[in-house]
Amino acid sequence: xxxxxxxxxxxxxxxxxxxxxxxxxxxxxxxxxxxxxxxxxxxxxxxxxxxxxxxxxxxxxxxxxxxxxxxxxxxxxxxxxxxxxxxxxxxxxxxxxxxxxxxxxxxxxxxxxxxxxxxxxxxxxxxxxxxxxxxxxxxxxxxxxxxxxxxxxxxxxxxxxxxxxxxxxxxxxxxxxxxxxxxxxxxxxxxxxxxxxxxxxxxxxxxxxxxxxxxxxxxxxxxxxxxxxxxxxxxxxxxxxxxxxxx
Length: 247
Hints:
Largest sheet: 4 strands, antiparallel
Protein name: NADPH-dependent oxidoreductase
Radius of gyration: 20 Å
Pfam families: Nitroreductase
Domain Nitroreductase: 8-164
Family: Belongs to the flavin oxidoreductase frp family.
Organism: Paenibacillus cineris
Number of strands: 4
Oligomer: single chain
Shape: globular
């Protein structure tokens, strides 16, 4: 195992941060590294908003489900899929041609681009001794949050990311066995149940140790409970209203 793989495998979500700033140089290096992530056809269809103003972070925390660490971290990054920039800068080159900027394919491209850049930023941040946690809660009240950040049509917040100096050392959450996710030369239906059953036992031990025996729910049960909960069903209407996936 080399240093890069060791760093990646040591990832854990940080929800408590020291009262220390993220320097402008660190932030610029992290975003510059993120820009080196792969991007479909070099469209680079994402933007990042760095929220550092305490009043703004307080509002964002409320909209994201009152998650205190959004307020407490020195920098809160909002990673956005952005087709607006592409639409604006190509308009003068279209010469009467129809634009497919609002296609479902381009929506996927922008979302994937944002995710690839964000994860590259996460690795870069951790290499500098910083910690991060992703915040899907920015989609809880996404219309209000988008208005607060002045996001134009064809831009939507995919997720947030708290960034700062860690003030905790949480354990590393176990992942599914490689056998559960790696298929060779085609999808193998037979590789589903057995690895997940083993992972259920691993997660039961992990949760029991983490909670002092108060919780030992198997992963598959946690996922079943999640699928039975109607989460953020407003997203389709919101995205349609923002101009995405019209074609």
